[in-house]
Write a structure and sequence with these properties.
Elements (H helix, E strand, L loop, with lengths): L7 E5 L3 H12 L3 E6 L7 H6 L5 E5 L12 E4 L8 H8 L3 E2 L2 H8 L4 E5 L4 H25 L13 E5 L17 E5 L2 H4 L8 E4 L7 H4 L2 H13 L6 E5 L3 H4 L8 E5 L9 E5 L5 E8 L2 E9 L8 H16 L4 H8 L10 E6 L2 E5 L6 H8 L6 E6 L8 H10 E7 L3 H8 L9 E4 L3 H11 L5 E7 L9 H13 L3
Parallel strand pairs: 1-2, 1-4, 2-3, 4-5, 6-8, 6-9, 7-8, 9-10, 10-11, 11-12, 16-20, 17-18, 17-20, 18-19
Antiparallel strand pairs: 12-13, 13-14, 15-16
Length: 482
C-alpha cells in the first residue's frame, strides 16, 4: 500500500467519488485539498459529511495556484479533463489519478471490473449476487466442517460498488485477501487509469458520452484501458456479438472468455444459448479437452428483454472466469428481478403497466427497452443531449410506438429525427415542457393493455440531479395518479 503521509493531493469534484477519496486519503495522513467549482454556500451538506476529517476546502473555482507543491491531482469522474487546472497539472508533470485507480493499487483481494455502454449496473449487481451465493456456501462449509477450511469455496466476503452505489475506496480498509470486489467502471474513470482488475469485462461499445469524449475512437479507447493494463495471468471477458467490444479481442493479454447467442468456436471458452434458444450453456477447455456444461433453462431468467439475456450470459461467463462455481451462478440468476430504474415495474393503473427505465441515457438504451415489449407502447423520451445519433431510435419508434411523449432539451431534436418516418407512421407525438407534464399526458392518453414506458434516451441534467433522482420523481408521480 502507498504511504500517503505528507503527500499533497488535490481532489477535484465534491460529489460521491471525490468525497469518498478525500475521506480515505485524509485518514491515511495525506494533505488533502478538496476543490469544487460551486461556492461554499452550495456545498454545506458535502462539507458536513467530512466534518472532523483533515480536509481543506477550496470552493468557487479551480485556481491554478492549488497545483503549487501538489504531488497528485485526482479529478472525479464527472470532471472533464480539458478544464484548465487539469491541463496545467499535466503540463507540469503532476500525475493524475482517481478513486478507482487508487483502489486497484491498494486492494488486497481479487477484483472483477465491468464496463460497457449498456448493462454495466445490472451485470455488476448480478455478479455480486452470484458471488454472494458462493460466499454463503463457504460460510456453511466453515460452520459445518471446520476441517475443510483449507479447501475454502471462493470467496469469503463480497464487496460491490465503484461507479454504482458505494465508491469502493470508502470500504477498502475492511477488505481482506480472501474477499472479492466487484466494481463497475465508466469511461470517465477509465480514461486516466493505468491499473486493471484481474477479471475485466467489456459488455458492449455503442455511441455514448460523445459530448465528453468527442468521437467514438476516443470513447472506445477509454473503454479499452480496462484490458490494456492487465497481465498475462489475468482474464478478459468480451461480447462476441458486439462489434465494438469484439474488435478489442486482439488487445487481450491473458486468458479470454466470451459470451454470445451462438456456441463459440472450438477451443474457445464462453457462454451461449442452445439452438432453440431455451437454455444457457457454457463451453470450457479443461485439461486440453473441450467440455459443454448445462447452466439453466432460459425460463429461469426473470429479467425482460434481449439485452438482459446478454447481461445474464455475460455474468455467467464472468463468474466462471473468476472461479465461482456453476451452482452459485444458477442460484444467483434465479429470481433476480433487476435493479431500480432499469426496466423497473412501477404499477398497473387503469389497465396499463408503467415501467421506469430512467437509466436509459442514450438512444441505444431506449431501443433495447422498446424491444423488450410486445404490447402497445406509450413512450416518454427526452432529457439532455449527449450529441448522439437518433435515426435508429426514430425508425424503431415509428413502427413500435403508438404515442411518443417528448420532454426536456432533447424534445425538438428527437422530433426532427422522427420527421423522416412519421409520414408513413401512425405514431402520435406530443411535446411537454417537463417530465411531470409528460406523466400527466400519458395518464390521459393510455388504454387498457398499454405499456407506459419511461425510457428517456437523454441524460437527466436539464431537470434533475442524476438518473436516479429522475427515476424516483417519475415513480412518485406515477404512484400519485388517482
Amino acid at each position: 500500500m502507498n504511504d500517503w503521509s505528507g503527500r499533497r493531493v488535490i481532489v477535484i469534484g465534491a460529489a460521491r467519488q471525490g468525497l469518498a477519496l478525500a475521506r480515505y486519503l485524509a485518514r491515511h495522513n495525506a494533505d488533502v485539498i478538496l476543490n469544487d467549482r460551486l461556492p461554499d454556500n452550495e456545498l454545506r451538506g458535502e462539507q458536513q459529511s467530512l466534518a472532523g476529517e483533515k480536509v481543506r476546502w477550496v470552493c468557487g473555482g479551480h485556481p491554478l495556484s492549488l497545483l503549487d507543491g501538489a504531488d497528485l491531482v485526482c479529478p472525479s469522474g464527472g470532471i472533464p479533463l480539458d478544464i484548465p487546472i487539469v491541463k496545467e497539472a499535466q503540463r507540469r508533470g503532476i500525475f493524475l489519478s482517481n478513486d478507482s485507480q487508487i483502489f486497484l493499487e491498494e486492494v488486497p483481494c481479487p477484483v472483477i471490473g465491468i464496463t460497457g455502454s449498456a448493462g454495466k449496473t445490472t451485470t455488476t449487481t448480478l455478479i455480486g449476487r452470484i458471488a454472494q451465493v458462493a460466499a454463503d456456501i463457504t460460510a456453511r462449509i466453515d460452520h459445518a466442517l471446520p476441517s475443510r477450511r483449507s479447501h475454502q469455496v471462493y470467496p469469503a466476503r463480497v464487496w460491490v460498488g465503484g461507479n454504482i452505489g458505494t465508491p469502493l475506496i470508502s470500504i477498502l480498509d475492511q477488505m481482506f485477501e480472501n474477499d472479492l470486489a466487484v466494481m463497475e467502471l465508466s469511461s470517465f474513470q477509465l480514461e486516466i487509469m493505468h491499473r486493471a482488475p484481474q477479471v475485466s469485462a467489456i459488455l458492449n461499445i455503442t455511441p455514448n458520452h460523445l459530448d465528453r469524449h468527442g468521437n467514438m475512437e476516443a470513447y472506445q479507447a477509454a473503454k479499452a484501458r480496462i484490458l490494456e493494463f492487465q497481465s498475462f495471468a489475468d482474464m478478459a471477458v468480451l461480447n462476441r456479438d458486439d462489434p465494438g467490444a469484439w474488435s478489442l479481442a486482439n488487445q487481450v493479454r491473458g486468458n479470454l472468455i466470451t459470451f454470445g447467442r451462438n456456441q463459440p468456436p472450438p477451443g474457445q471458452t464462453g457462454t451461449f444459448l442452445t439452438d432453440d434458444g431455451q437454455a444457457l450453456m457454457l463451453q470450457s477447455i479443461e485439461n486440453g479437452m473441450e467440455k459443454v456444461h448445462y447452466l439453466m433453462p432460459r425460463k429461469d431468467i426473470s429479467l425482460r428483454g434481449e439485452h438482459n439475456l446478454y447481461n445474464v450470459l455475460a455474468a455467467s461467463a464472468i463468474a466462471f472466469g473468476a472461479g465461482i462455481p456453476i451452482e452459485a451462478v444458477v442460484v444467483g440468476v434465479k429470481n433476480f428481478i433487476g435493479v431500480p430504474h432499469r426496466l423497473e415495474f412501477v404499477r398497473s393503473w387503469k389497465g396499463a403497466d408503467w415501467f421506469n427505465d430512467s437509466i436509459a441515457t442514450a438512444p441505444e438504451r431506449s431501443i433495447a427497452a422498446i424491444h423488450s415489449f410486445s404490447e402497445p407502447l406509450i413512450l416518454l423520451a427526452g432529457g439532455k443531449d449527449k450529441n448522439l445519433p437518433w435515426e435508429d431510435f426514430a425508425r424503431l419508434v415509428a413502427t413500435r410506438v403508438k404515442h411518443l411523449i417528448l420532454f426536456g432539451e432533447l424534445a425538438d431534436k428527437i422530433a426532427q429525427a422522427m420527421i423522416t418516418y412519421t409520414p408513413e407512421s401512425k405514431v402520435k407525438i406530443t411535446h411537454c415542457s417537463n417530465l411531470f407534464q409528460a406523466v400527466q399526458t400519458a395518464a390521459k392518453a393510455l388504454s387498457p393493455g398499454d405499456v407506459v414506458l419511461f425510457s428517456p434516451g437523454g441524460t437527466s441534467f436539464d431537470e434533475f440531479r442524476d438518473f436516479e433522482d429522475r427515476g424516483e420523481a417519475y415513480k412518485k408521480w406515477v404512484m400519485e395518479l388517482p
